[in-house]
């Protein structure tokens, strides 16, 4: 500790003592007017020092000391002419000291303070404070930790002890009152650092004003605003799918009509916590990203991008659900009023499943038959038995706010799911996923909105149920390489106009290379088969023997904490599982802004 810093430590905190002495001086004079200890000279000294009470520092929250002060906000510090640049620099250094101080126990001799030397000019003053008044404290284990510097906060604890001790002496009217020599030493300290004291007072004024401004204009004491913006530039190459169901062709022309386009999606999340452990999520969203699947574009569900929210009319309420812990923190309960989805209450194991930072197609995110279905309103429980076993269960309904027959919470489309996760080590995890889904008429998407049209609606728009079983795993072999994938099987039954049955399967293999070139970057590769119907009780509707293969790769460049740019592409061979269709190539440039 430098001599100047040391002197500041003594002075800044000693002012508190001086202020207290001034406050009680009248009492001391009345009680001890006939004693030499408070002679006229001592009284004059007290009178001179009495104004120091104005420099007592308020008990500010340390967080305010970190708030930057805007020079244009109308608040400023008026510095005395005597404060030079060196003093300001020293002062800033003082404010940084002592951030990790600990409570200390009383010491009885200044020799116990290893960073205070007898050659220091203020040694005698400090010795008096320690040995006469018992002010300096040590650590709870009886040691002082002499190999580290004394901080402002540690010294403040000792000065506070001095203040209490002096007050006790004055109140008790004993002969051990503050001496003229002590007051002279304090006066010398005060005069030495008069400029710093003025600067401290100005800085405190700014902090008080800034704190008041923040309190008056804060958004909420319980809610945090987070947001993201996605710019989506894309185009397709290759002829659109001409054959989409058995017996085609289904469009007259197979030429590629798709043009390059620039879409976007904006999300504003209001994250509210009432206990510090719960979360009420309210999300507003606006989007304009085409899904490419119409007959006038690619004419296949296999080209749907990962950001598949479609086109909205301005901002709309997108998510509204509440999460809170139960069972000693081992479980989480979800209550959703809107857009509580299967991928919210179940866990994809793939590290590249996120639509904003991972894959660029809808199919490559996860098993579409177990992670997509009727959803939006309902409840879920996610419970971790220990570090290895976890169970997620949920019941979600679509259009639950509609009280009409065939809708509502329990009489309309729904998904009832259960997921069991086993993680034998930090590098390896397995999961078994099951759900049962019911689709209202005209709202059927058995294939999760991906795959072939016939796999998505095996019985057309008739009401349909499906039992879906999935298996997924992920294995981190090295720090920068993870290998995973999934397999899903679906058994669908017609519930309106017949009793036909169909079987649909899909699978994928994923490769992830996190932090490949630098921290935050990600290379991802996905190879898989979109949902394909392999059996139908109506022979004419059974798919032929062709198989579409989905191949996707992307690379995320993490520019900084807030911006990421992801170029990538995916292609589909034999779209609609029909070799008569040409390969379709989709190129994407995604830019993500987070705040």
Task: Please give a structural write-up.
By secondary structure, this protein is an alpha+beta fold. Strand 9 and strand 10 form a beta hairpin. The radius of gyration is 36 Å and the shape is elongated. The N terminus is likely disordered.
Give the structure's gist in a few sentences:
This protein is α+β, with helices and mostly antiparallel strands.
Salient structural properties:
16-stranded antiparallel β-barrel, 21% helix, 595 residues, 33% strand, 9 helices, 19 strands, two-stranded antiparallel sheet
Distance between the termini: 41 Å
Strand content: 25-35%
The major beta sheet can be summarized as: 16 strands, antiparallel, barrel
Number of strands: 19
Regions with pLDDT < 50 over 5+ consecutive residues? 1-85, 87-104
Structural classification: alpha+beta
Share of helix, binned: 10-25%
Shape: elongated
Q: How much is the radius of gyration in Å?
A: 36 Å
Mean of the pLDDT scores? 79
Number of helices: 9
**Strand neighbour order, sheet with most strands:** 3-4-5-7-8-9-10-11-12-13-14-15-16-17-18-19
Topology, element by element:
Layout: H1 3-31, H2 40-49, H3 85-96, E1 105-106, H4 123-131, E2 137-138, H5 152-172, H6 180-192, H7 194-217, E3 223-237, E4 261-272, E5 279-289, E6 310-311, E7 316-326, E8 331-340, H8 342-345, E9 376-384, E10 389-397, E11 414-425, E12 428-439, H9 453-456, E13 464-478, E14 481-494, E15 501-514, E16 522-536, E17 549-558, E18 563-573, E19 584-594
Antiparallel strand pairs: 1-2, 3-4, 3-19, 4-5, 5-6, 5-7, 7-8, 8-9, 9-10, 10-11, 11-12, 12-13, 13-14, 14-15, 15-16, 16-17, 17-18, 18-19
């Amino acid at each position: 500790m430098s001599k100047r810093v040391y002197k500041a430590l003594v002075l800044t905190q000693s002012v508190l003592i001086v202020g207290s002495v001034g406050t009680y001086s009248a009492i001391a004079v009345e009680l001890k007017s006939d004693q030499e200890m408070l002679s006229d000279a001592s009284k004059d000294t007290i009178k001179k020092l009495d104004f120091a009470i104005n420099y007592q520092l308020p008990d500010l929250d340390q967080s305010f000391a970190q708030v930057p002060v805007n020079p244009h906000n109308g608040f400023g510090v008026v510095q005395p002419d005597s404060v030079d640049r060196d003093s300001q620099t020293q002062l800033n250094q003082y404010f940084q000291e002592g951030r990790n101080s600990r409570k200390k126990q009383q010491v009885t001799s200044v020799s116990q303070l290893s960073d205070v030397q007898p050659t220091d000019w203020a040694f005698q003053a400090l010795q008096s404070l320690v040995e006469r008044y018992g002010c300096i404290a040590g650590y709870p284990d009886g040691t002082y930790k002499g190999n580290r510097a004394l901080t402002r906060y540690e010294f403040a604890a000792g000065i506070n002890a001095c203040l209490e001790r002096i007050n006790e002496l004055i109140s008790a009217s004993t002969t051990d009152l503050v001496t003229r020599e002590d007051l002279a030493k304090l006066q010398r300290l005060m005069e030495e650092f008069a400029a710093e004291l003025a600067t401290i007072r100005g800085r405190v004024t700014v902090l008080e004003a800034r704190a008041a401004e923040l309190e008056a204009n804060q958004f909420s004491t319980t809610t945090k605003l987070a947001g993201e913006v996605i710019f989506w530039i894309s185009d397709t190459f290759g002829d659109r799918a001409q054959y989409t169901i058995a017996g085609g062709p289904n469009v007259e022309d197979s030429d590629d009509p798709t043009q390059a386009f620039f879409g976007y999606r904006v999300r504003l999340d209001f994250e509210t916590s009432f206990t510090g452990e719960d979360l009420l999520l309210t999300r507003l969203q606006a989007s304009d990203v085409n899904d490419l699947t119409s007959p006038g574009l690619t004419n296949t569900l296999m080209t749907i991008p990962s950001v598949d929210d479609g086109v909205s009319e301005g901002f709309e309420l997108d998510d509204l659900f509440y999460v809170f812990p139960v069972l000693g923190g081992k479980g989480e309960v979800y209550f959703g009023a809107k857009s509580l989805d299967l991928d919210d209450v179940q866990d994809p194991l793939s590290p590249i499943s996120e639509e904003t930072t991972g894959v660029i197609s809808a199919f490559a995110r996860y098993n579409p038959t177990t992670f997509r279905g009727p959803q939006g309103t309902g409840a879920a429980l996610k419970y971790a038995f220990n570090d290895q076993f976890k169970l997620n269960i949920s019941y979600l309904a679509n259009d639950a706010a509609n009280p009409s027959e065939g809708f509502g919470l329990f009489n309309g489309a729904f998904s009832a799911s259960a997921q069991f996760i086993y993680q034998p080590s930090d590098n390896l995890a397995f999961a078994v996923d099951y759900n049962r889904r019911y689709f209202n008429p005209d709202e059927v998407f058995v294939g999760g909105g991906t795959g072939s049209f016939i796999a998505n609606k095996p019985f057309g728009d008739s009401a349909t149920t499906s039992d879906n079983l999935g298996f997924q795993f992920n294995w981190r072999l090295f720090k920068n390489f993870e290998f995973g994938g999934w397999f899903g099987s679906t058994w669908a039954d017609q519930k309106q106009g017949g009793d036909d049955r169909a079987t649909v399967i899909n699978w994928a293999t994923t490769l992830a290379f996190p932090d490949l070139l630098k921290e935050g970057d990600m290379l991802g590769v996905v190879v898989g088969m979109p949902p394909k119907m392999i059996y139908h009780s109506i022979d004419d509707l059974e798919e032929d023997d062709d198989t579409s293969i989905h191949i996707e790769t992307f690379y995320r460049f993490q520019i900084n904490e807030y911006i990421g740019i992801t170029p990538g592409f995916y292609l589909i061979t034999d779209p609609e599982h029909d070799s008569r269709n040409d390969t379709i190539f989709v190129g994407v440039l995604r830019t993500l802004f987070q705040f």
